[in-house]
């Protein structure tokens, strides 16, 4: 019988035994299947140290529910067991009155620290770091250092990298636990520490910090204040979340939405709608320019009605061709592979690709509509010449616009499919009708 | 004067001194600015251990160039210094004749190992693991273990997690270096090791492995064969590359391209074109169905030509509305937040969101075209009713198709903007003309 069933049948003792066979993450996952009323009941079955491990893995609603249902002492017990970054994460998600209640039960020192953390800007180094790092002094021997770690290491987020500071907490060097273990006991820390340190500032943006991790294959990074005093460290598990989050933001922006950090299934309909409507409106209104172009060429359409039949194909192909280019450039920029200085290289590549793609598409299309659909030769020619130039222009515009956005300090990701499509639509139509007027002599 | 300038002026000694102030990754970055003819010259300035570190960070072309320009002994020296996964990565990128030349200089044992690695399927656990892990026995004391690590640790990819195996190399437990350091010297490994191990198989897909890292906040994972014998480990720095790579693949598929692992700027125009043309062709041909619909309603268009002016707006808005939904669902599925069993939840959410978005867009559009553009009341009504239903259908289709793709064992990412746009276009037009016929009595 599985745990959820045991709980439903109120066999709590058996449920507890079953629970203890699992790790905190799997238990947290199991909580997702529980009814809200059972959440607190099951949570209280967990031994103290397991309780806080499970707590950090629960989702926002369940955390809030638990905090509001348990005693102040129980809350303090959980929060005391959490690392500083987790504590702050939890507090940020809770309603203000609950936070007040919790802070009341916290020591003055820790309260000050928490308030300092809550004041770091969103997505800054300060807001994602934790303060539980292993600290050493450069005069220590390896033996001293290992003894110091043994004494204090239990509370640290990681001891895989240790940080060497002077008396003013200024960061002087780092030394890996591996180096400590591989070195002889009487060697001094200052002789084995690395002084060439990759570090970030409390105010650096998380995207920049993630780049440092990737570039230097780090698993932790020290965070310093403006005086280069060590104030915390960031560990790689948080960076993985940030990498996913930044990619998700790009996906959302590229599909013309305001980014939303919450999981889709956990976001309510109003919030989902709010994040989507503004861009839909903007793009809808922009698309009316395209309509105006068609209106302007009403006479052309009326004399050769068949021309209307190729409008969707032209518009869609132009949009797709442009989106391909903009997607590659936006992603390349996000990964740091394409920079502003590469603008001419991008134009060169897109010109080459678009000429090839444009030729292939035009020829295939010509064969199809002239021989299969038996369309008039000059109409077919009009369609295919327009198609060729649409693809070329779409790809060059798609390649340039993300770089232009960057130049203007905008997010390149907004220059994606929907916006490119709207822009390319107008160009495709003007080209199409102009070529029609010229070739068909309307 | 910077290093590149020093090299250009052939001040190699000074260049070497300057180089030694930097770490391997920064030196590798500097290589990107060098002319190909200087690459080998500068590479030979590096001391032996630094040379292999820099080598793994260089790009494919430069690696191949170096390997083909240096002596066999130099190649062996570099490869001997690399971890197995790096060696295999390097070999996979080199031309076959160069690989042959290298393998000739390798011991039989290592050659067998390399061949085994080269045989693991692409993107499998076996192909990304490395074999340099710290191994312990459960009968060791902590003191023995630390001594063993001290003796062998220098060659290991990481010692932060150590692996306990029986005599048949069967994985029995893991113990972190932290636990070793925090434990007393005479404690037995078997008493502190964790036996509840998260591990993967050599044949597991890298996407699944990355999910395990995220789910359990791991920094390494053991890789076993079908008999649960330990054959290697995967470290988190490789996982970060995989997470980026998987997201990039999704970006590319969602913009209707065949995924391409190479960096944009390093891919030639033909390859770029090849990855884009097939989908452009497929979508172009699909878009002709939309053209056929317009042709079918030629008479309607001829009697109320103004209707043509709203076609781009309807098509674009439908496409955008659908892409928003499909993007959220595709990304949610990639992150494991949305599963097949959530299909009805997704439909419910999209129905709600689309009714809100559809209403807002229709009302705004009605006000604009009726009052500002002075379009006939019934035409305005036709446009807005079509718009509403297009948005609703687009969002529901956008939400369902990625899930349907998964059900059919296809990649959900192909059900993105371009394909959704093509499908929604047809629906939007049929709706539009049907409502026009009905409301305007054509």
TrEMBL record, chains A, B:
GO cellular component, one term: plasma membrane
Keywords from the UniProt entry: CBS domain, Cell membrane, Magnesium, Membrane, Metal-binding, Transmembrane, Transmembrane helix, Transport
Gene3D superfamilies, alphabetized: CBS-domain, MgtE N-terminal domain-like, SLC41 divalent cation transporters, integral membrane domain
GO MF annotation, one: metal ion binding
Protein name listed in UniProt: Magnesium transporter MgtE
Compartment list: Cell membrane; Membrane
Main location: membrane
Family assignment from sequence similarity: Belongs to the SLC41A transporter family.
Annotated function: Acts as a magnesium transporter.
Lineage of producing organism: Bacteria, Bacillati, Bacillota, Clostridia, Eubacteriales
The organism of origin for this protein: Clostridium amylolyticum
Subunit composition and interactions: Homodimer.
Transmembrane region(s): 277-294, 351-371, 377-401, 413-440
Domain CBS: start-end pairs: 193-249
Membrane topology: Multi-pass membrane protein
InterPro entries noted in UniProt: CBS_dom, CBS_dom_sf, Mg_transptr_MgtE_intracell_dom, MgtE_N_sf, MgtE_transporter, SLC41_membr_dom, SLC41_membr_dom_sf
């Amino acid at each position: 019988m599985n745990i959820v069933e045991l709980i439903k049948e109120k066999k709590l003792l058996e449920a507890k035994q079953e629970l203890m066979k699992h790790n905190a993450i799997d238990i947290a996952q199991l909580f997702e299947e529980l009814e809200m009323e059972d959440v607190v009941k099951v949570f209280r079955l967990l031994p103290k140290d397991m309780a806080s491990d499970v707590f950090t893995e629960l989702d926002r609603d369940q955390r809030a529910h638990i905090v509001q249902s348990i005693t102040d002492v129980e809350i303090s017990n959980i929060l005391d067991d959490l690392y500083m970054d987790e504590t702050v994460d939890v507090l940020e998600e809770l309603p203000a009155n609950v936070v007040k209640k919790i802070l009341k039960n916290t020591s003055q020192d820790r309260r000050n620290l928490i308030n300092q953390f809550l004041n770091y800007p969103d997505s800054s180094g300060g807001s994602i770091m934790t303060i539980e790092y292993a600290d050493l002094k450069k005069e220590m021997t390896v033996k001293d250092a290992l003894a110091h770690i043994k004494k204090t290491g239990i509370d640290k987020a990681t001891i895989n990298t240790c940080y060497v500071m002077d008396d003013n907490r200024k960061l002087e060097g780092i030394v890996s636990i591996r180096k400590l273990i591989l070195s002889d006991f009487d060697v001094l820390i200052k002789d084995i520490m690395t002084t060439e340190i990759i570090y970030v500032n409390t105010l650096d943006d998380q995207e920049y910090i993630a780049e440092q991790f990737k570039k230097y294959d780090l698993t932790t990074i020290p965070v310093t204040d403006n005086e280069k005093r060590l104030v915390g460290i960031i560990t790689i598990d948080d960076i993985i979340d940030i990498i996913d989050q930044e990619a998700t933001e790009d996906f959302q922006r590229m599909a013309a939405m305001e980014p939303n950090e919450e999981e889709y299934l956990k976001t309510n309909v109003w919030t989902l709608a709010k994040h989507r409507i503004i861009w839909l409106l903007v793009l809808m209104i922009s698309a009316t320019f395209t309509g105006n172009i068609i209106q302007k060429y009403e006479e052309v359409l009326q004399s050769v009605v068949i021309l209307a039949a190729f409008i969707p194909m032209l518009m869609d192909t132009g949009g797709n061709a442009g989106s391909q280019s903009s997607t590659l450039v936006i992603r390349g920029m996000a990964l740091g592979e394409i920079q502003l200085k590469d603008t001419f290289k991008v134009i060169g590549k897109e010109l080459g690709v678009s000429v090839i793609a444009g030729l292939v598409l035009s020829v295939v299309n010509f064969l199809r509509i002239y021989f299969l659909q038996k369309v008039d030769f000059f109409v077919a020619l009009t369609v295919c010449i327009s198609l060729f130039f649409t693809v070329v222009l779409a790809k060059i515009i798609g390649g340039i616009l993300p770089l232009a956005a960057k130049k203007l300090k905008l997010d390149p990701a907004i220059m994606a499919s929907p916006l490119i499509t709207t822009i390319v639509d107008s160009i495709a139509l003007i080209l199409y009708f102009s070529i029609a007027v010229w070739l068909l002599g309307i």
